[in-house]
Design goal:
single chain; about 400 residues; alpha/beta; Rossmann fold; 2 domains; six-stranded mixed sheet; four-stranded parallel sheet; about 45% helix; about 10% strand; oxidoreductase activity, acting on the CH-OH group of donors, NAD or NADP as acceptor; NAD(P)-bd_dom_sf; malic enzyme activity; NADP-dependent malic enzyme
């Protein structure tokens, strides 16, 4: 559709036809100075000769870079354009509107400065090397829209090499918000996480991360399904990531199809983009939860899910209980940067989920198990919880 708009022959500019193009013309970001340069005195302080004093001080005490530059307040939003939204592998140039959008969400919702960096390579070694070389300019790295399984390797290697937070939002942001919503859904139904059996459709970046955080949080059991069915130890076609996944999930030893796994399950979590038959949803346990998060087309349409589930969540903004990563990543980085953390640990992720759930803990209803992205309580709550967890886990430097 976008290509048709751009290539039309009637002579009208695209932004006359579509307001999305009008909004994006010229980009969505700009650099703004935080100090004035009004006269020669200002210039001598902001640039030469005054800047030399600051440079010399940092050369002698490198840690001063966090106090006298923007480094400690800015995140690099890094992508290779290989797994963008619902668009797939569209490359670095076409990914830039999304990366700009991510950057302005950092600022709008968390007060965090962010710079989009779209890299013209999909080679893991080259991505890691590039980010490591750029890292002195940034206080954190948010990996975005990098395809699995490459994203797992890149994140792990960067976390090992860098002393600043590295966070793949497609994995962990989704997982944190999902856990927060699930905590509240369980509370609403009078159950503990340990009493629930969940089935995840999708064994990519988000599915793997959700499984890990649910296990960390104490869920009763969770099985993950890919296109060929339940990820289980008896399968011989598993990748290294899926073999690891099979090792810590599916205590019940389920095999076969997604539909088989859903029989009697308490929770469905969809991050696959597939379609789940209505009869499979009907076979779930009483008072089940359906979190069908594929966007724009959920794996289970909300109208169908409501026939059988007590709580329904989607990835869409036009239905209640939107599982939206913007509820997590701005506050997570704000908290990590606040204490100049060297890492984002599992404990910090769990703390973020607990804080997010607590925002609406006294306002729970089937249509409100997670806050709105525009709830002004969200970012401060997540920021505070993450900062406290960083100090408790020994990764804070202030």
């Amino acid at each position: 559709m976008a290509a048709e708009i751009v290539n039309q022959k009637d002579g009208l500019e695209p932004d006359v036809i579509d307001p999305a193009f009008a909004l994006h013309r010229g980009g969505k970001m700009a650099v703004q100075a935080t100090v004035p340069v009004r006269d020669a005195d200002d210039l001598s302080l902001a640039y030469t000769p005054g800047v030399a004093k600051v440079c010399s001080a940092i050369a002698e005490q490198p840690e001063l870079v966090d106090d006298y530059t923007w480094k400690s307040q800015v995140v690099a939003v890094v992508t290779d354009g290989s797994a963008v939204l619902g668009l797939g592998d569209i490359g670095p140039k076409a990914s830039l509107p999304v990366m700009e959008g991510k950057a302005i969400l950092f600022k709008q919702f968390g007060g965090v400065e962010a710079v989009p960096l779209a890299l013209d390579t999909q080679d893991a070694d080259e991505i890691v090397d590039t980010v490591v070389r750029l890292a002195p300019s940034f206080g954190g790295v948010n990996l975005e829209d990098i395809a699995a399984p490459r994203c797992f390797e890149i994140e792990a290697r960067l976390k090992e090499k860098l002393d600043i937070p590295v966070f793949h939002d497609d994995q962990h942001g989704t997982a944190i918000v999902t856990l927060a919503a699930l905590r509240n859904a369980a509370k609403l139904s009078g159950r503990a996480l340990g009493q629930l059996r969940a089935v995840i459709s999708g064994a990519g970046a988000a599915g793997v991360a959700i499984a890990k955080i649910l296990i960390e949080a104490g869920i009763g059991d969770v099985a993950v399904c890919d296109r060929k069915g339940v990820v289980s130890g008896d399968r011989e076609d598993l990748t290294e990531v899926k073999r690891e996944l099979a090792g810590f999930t599916n205590k019940a030893g389920l095999t076969g199809s997604l539909e088989n796994a859903l029989a009697g399950a308490d929770v469905f979590i969809g991050v696959s983009g597939g379609t789940v038959p209505e009869e499979a949803v009907a076979a779930m346990a009483e008072d089940a939860f359906v979190f069908a998060m594929a966007n724009p087309n959920p794996e289970v349409h909300p109208d169908v899910a409501r026939k059988y589930a007590s709580v329904v969540a989607t990835g869409r903004s036009d239905y209640p209980n939107q599982i939206n990563n913007v509820l997590a990543f701005p506050g997570i980085f704000a908290g990590a940067l606040q204490v100049r953390a060297t890492d984002i640990t599992e404990g910090m992720k769990l703390a973020a989920a607990e804080a997010l759930a607590a925002v609406v803990a006294d306002e729970l209803s089937p249509e409100r198990v997670i806050p709105s992205p525009f709830d002004e309580r969200v970012a401060p709550a997540v920021t505070s919880a993450v900062a406290a967890a960083a100090r408790a886990e020994g990764v804070a430097r202030r």
